[in-house]
Amino acid sequence: MKAIRRFTVRPVLPEPLRPLSELAHNLRWSWHAETRDLFQSVDPEAWGAAGCDPVRLLGRVRPARLAELSGDRRFRRRLNAVADDLDDYLTGDRWYQAQPEGLPRAVAYFSPEFGITAALPQYSGGLGILAGDHLKAASDLGVPLVGVGLLYRHGYFRQTLSRDGWQQEHYPVLDPNELPLSQVAEADGTPARVSLALPGGRALHARIWLAQVGRVPLLLLDSDVEENDLGARSVTDRLYGGGSEHRLLQEMLLGIGGVRAVRTYCRLTGHPEPEVFHTNEGHAGFLGLERIAELCARGLDFDAALESVRGGTVFTTHTPVPAGIDRFERDLIAGHFGPDAELPGIETPRILALGTETYPGGEPNLFNMAVMGLRLAQRANGVSLLHGQVSREMFAGLWPGFDTEEVPITSVTNGVHAPTWVAPEVLRLGARKIGTQRAEDALAVGGSERWDSVADIPDQEIWELRRTLREQLVLEVRERLGASWRQRGAGNAELGWIDGVLDPDVLTIGFARRVPSYKRLTLMLRDQGRLRELLLHPERPVQIVVAGKAHPADDSGKRLVQELVRFADDARVRHRIVFLPDYGMAMAQRLYPGCDIWLNNPLRPLEACGTSGMKAALNGCLNLSVLDGWWDEWFRPDFGWAIPTADGTGLDVERRDDIEAAALYDLLEQRIAPRFYERGRGGLPDRWIQMVRQTLTLLGPKVLAGRMVREYVERLYAPAACSHRALTPDTAGELAGWKARVRDAWHAVSVDHVETTETTATAELGATVGLRVRVGLGALTPDDVEVQAVSGRVDARDRITDATIVPLKPAGTPDLEGHRLYEGRLSFDRTGPYGCTVRILPAHRLLASAAEVGVVALPAEDAGEGAGVLLR
User: Fold this and answer.
1) How far, in Å, CA of 503 to CA of 523, rounded?
2) What is the model's pLDDT at position 829?
3) Parent domain of 32
4) In this structure, is residue 797 part of a structural domain?
5) How many whole angstroms separate alpha carbon 842 and alpha carbon 785?
6) More confident residue, 606 or 757
7) Would you say 614 and 627 are in contact if contact means Cβ atoms under 8 Å apart?
8) Mapping DSSP to helix (H, G, I), strand (E, B) and coil, where does residue 752 land?
9) Is residue 434 part of a domain?
C-alpha cells in the first residue's frame, strides 16, 4: 500500500544528549573528523545505513541505544568536548577578525547550486562544489558571509546504467524535514516567506530554509508551498531542468527573491546587512535589479541607484565559451518585468538594456545574463589566470577601444576546501608530524607558501600511505561496481569476477567529472588497442577508474558514457578499467585519495579552472593534464605531467584528438608507468615518492580554498566595501551625472597633434624623450580626463605589448580654439623595437577602472609623427 501522507518523526533526545541535535544541524560535521567519529560511535551500523548523515542517523537510532549512551560517562565527556569545540569555532576570533578595519560587515554570496555534503544534494558539478568550498573556507576564516541559493526538491538527478550502458536518470524526492535544514520563521513562529509578482496577477511564493555551514548561514528558497499554483510550485523542482521560462523563473527567484530572503533573515536575526553582493556566475544576476529597485523606492533615480549597486557588487564568471551562458529572448524578459509583473518601478527598456549584446557579433534579440552581471558589477573576475585572459577576450566587445589586457576582468584562481577533500589518513599523518591543531590550520586557513614539514616524513611512510589509500579505493570500487551491475540486471552468480577488479599494487588513474564534449571523456579510447596494451602490460600495467554524468538533455554526452562503459564491460579488460555511475561527493572523497594519477584532457582553453586535480593533489596524487585552467598556471615537472596540445589552426577535430591521444599514450608508456614501477635500493619508487612530496610541499598551499577566499577578501570584497560606503545617495548621483555628461561630450574629445623632442628613429637604453600633445576636450575640463602616454615593445604590426602608462600634465591655458597642451617625458627602459602612443580617458575618483565608462580617445592618423613614436 502507498502512503497518502508523509510525516517526519523526530527522536526525543535524553537531556544529556541534547548537544547531538545542534551538532547534527551544523554542517561543520561534514568536514570535521571528530564530529563524524562521534556520530559513528552512536551506532556504527545505523551510521552506514544513514549514508553518514547525522540527521538521518538520529532518526534511526533505537531509543534503548540513546538511553544507554545518556548513561555512558565516557561518551558524554566526548560529546561535551566536541560541542565545546563547535562553540569555540562559532564564537572565537579567526583570520578575518584579525585584519585591519575597513572590511565589509557582511558579504552575500549567491549561487544556483551548493555542494556542501552528499547529505544535502543541491549540486551538479564543479560550480556547486566550488560554491560549497567557498562557504566552508569563509567559515574557517571567519568571513561574515551569507550564502543564498535554491532548494531543489529533486536535486540533480541520480544516475544508473541500462544493461547496454545507456545513462538513465532518476529524481528522488527530497523532504526538507529529513535534511540538515531548519525553516526561517517570523517572530510569531510562522514560516518566513518571500514573494515575486508574475504576469497576469499571479504570484510566486517561497519559504526560506536555513543550512548552517559552520559560521555561515546558507539560505535556500523553496517554491513548493501551498500558496502557489501547480506551475509556481514546480519552479524549484530540479536543478538545471525545464525550458526557458522555467529557468528564468528560477533565476528571478534566486536573484530577486534571494535579496528579499537576505533582508528577511537580517531583520529576524540581527545579522549585519551585507555591504558586498557576490554573484557566482550569471544565474543570480537579477539580484542587482532588486537592489536598484530598493534604492529607487528610497528616492534615487535609476542611474544613481545603478552606480550605488555596482560599487558593492562582485561578479565571477565561470564559463570560457559563450554557449555556456544563459540567454533569454528579450520578449520573455519583458513579459516578466514592468507594471504588470515584477519590479514595476523600473522601466522595462532599462532592464533590457543591461543584458543586450551590444558588441560585434552579438544577438540583439537575446538577453545575456553574463553581460548583465558585468554591467551590474564594478568588479569582475575569472577563476584562473588563463580563464581571466579568455574572459577578457570573450567580453572585450563591451569595452571598445581598449586592449584586451585592459578589459576590467581580473582573476582569482579557484581553490578547494582541504578538510573536506583530504583523506583522514593524510590528515593523521600530518598531525603526527606537526600536531593536530597546526595540521588543521594549515589545511583550513593556509597562508604559508610551502609545507616544509612534509620533508620530514620518511619515504616508507609516504609509500605505505599511498598503498593504503589505493587499497581502500579498490574495495570501494568493487562494492560500487557490484551494485551497478545488479542495477543493470545481473545476478550474483554472474558477478564473481568483481572480486578480482583492480589491484592495490597497480598504477591507478582517475578520471571523473561532468561529461560535456569539451572534457573528452573518451579521448583515452582513441586507440583502443594501444589502451589495452597499457592496461594489460605484463610488467607495468595501469588501471583506470572513470565516473561522470552527462546532462539529461545531452544525448551526445550519453553516447560518450555508453562508449566508455562498453569498452569497460569487455571481459579482457574489465578488471583494469571501470566506470562507476552516480558520481557525487561521497564517491569523490574516496576516489581522489586512492588514485596515483589524476587525468584531465579538456580542449584547451575550455576548462575555466577545474578543481578535481587540486583535490587529488592534496592527497599526494600526481596530475596528468592538458595545460588548461589552474594546471596551466601552476604546472611544474615536480608535480606531474603536461599533455601536449595540438594548437595548429589548420587541424581538424579528428586529427587534433589523434595527436593529443597519442601524446597521452606516450607519456603513460615511456615516462609515467616506468617511474611508478622503478625501485631504488630500498625497494621503494624513490623518484615517484619525491614527486608526491613536492606536490604536497609546493602545490598543496596554493590550491586551498582558504587562499582563494583570502584573495577575494583582499582584492575584491574590501575594495567593493569601500566603494559601497563611498557611493552614498549624493555621491552616486554625482557619479551618474558625471558619466552622463562625459558620454554626451565625448564626441568632441580628440588627440589632435603629437610631437616629440627626439628627431631620430633610434635611442639608447635609459634615454628620455619629451612629449607634447595637443588635445581637444570640448565641454570637458582637465579634471574630467587623464591624458596618457602608452609605451612598450612593439610587434611586427606595431602593436604595443607589455605597456607602460605615464600620465601627462596640462601645460598652460587653452588656446583660442579651446585646445589644451599636455606634456611629459618618456623613458626608454628596454631595448629593441619600441613604440609609444597617446590616449585620453575619463577620470573620476569613484571609478574602479578607467575602462568603466567605456569611452577612450585615440590619435587620428594625421595627429602627427604617425600618431605616436616608433623606434627600432
Assistant:
1) 24
2) 74
3) 15-91
4) yes
5) 4
6) 606
7) no
8) strand
9) no
107: left (phi over 0), alpha (psi -120 to 50) or beta: beta
Amino acid identity of 780? L
Torsion sign over Cα 825, 827, 833, 839? negative
C-alpha cell at 362: 552579438
- Examine residue 424 and state whether it is found in any structural domain, yes or no: no
CATH number at residue 751: 2.60.40
- Indicate whether this model's pTM tops 0.90: yes
Considering the domain architecture, whether residues 483 and 407 belong to the same structural domain is answered as: no
C-alpha to C-alpha distance for 336 and 359, rounded to whole angstroms:
25
Tens of pLDDT along 710-734?
999 999 999 999 999 999 999 999 9
Edge to edge, the sheet with strand 800-807 lists: 800-807, 785-794, 834-842, 869-871
Q: Which of 859, 858, 841, 838 is nearest to 850 (CA)?
A: 841
When divided into structural domains, the chain yields a total of 4
The more confident residue out of 869 and 464 is 464
H-helix or E-strand containing 647? Answer: none
Lowest mean pLDDT segment, chosen from 5-14, 398-407, 528-537, 581-590? 5-14
Which DSSP string do the residues of 842-866 spell out, in sequence order?
A: E--TT-S-TTTT---B-B-TTSSGG
Q: Which residue reads 558579504 in cell numbers?
A: 107
Q: Are 355 and 372 in contact (CB under 8 A)?
A: yes
Strands (E), 392-537: 410-411, 507-512
pLDDT digits (tens, 9 = 90+) for 664-683: 999 999 999 999 999 999 99
User: C-alpha grid cell for residue 222?
Assistant: 523553496
| 323 in the same domain as 271 | yes
Q: Which residues pair with 599 in a beta bridge?
A: 624
Q: Grid coordinates standing for 827?
A: 623613458
Of the candidate ranges 442-446, 541-545, 755-759, the one whose mean pLDDT is the lowest: 755-759
Angle (CA) 810 812 816, round 5°: 110
Q: Output helix, strand, coil percentages for the chain, rounded to the nearest 5.
A: 45, 20, 35
Q: What is the pLDDT of residues 335-352, one digit of tens each?
A: 999 998 999 999 999 999
- Across 244-276, b (16+ Cβ under 10 Å) vs e yields eeebbbbbbbbbbbbbbbbbbbbeeeeeeebbb
The last residue of a domain, from among 73, 91, 109: 91
pLDDT at 360 over 90: no
Whether residue 76 is contained in a domain is answered as: yes
Could you tell me if 504 and 598 lie in one domain?
yes
Q: Which residues pair with 191 in a beta bridge?
A: 185
How far apart, in whole angstroms, are the C-alpha atoms of residue 593 and residue 620? 7
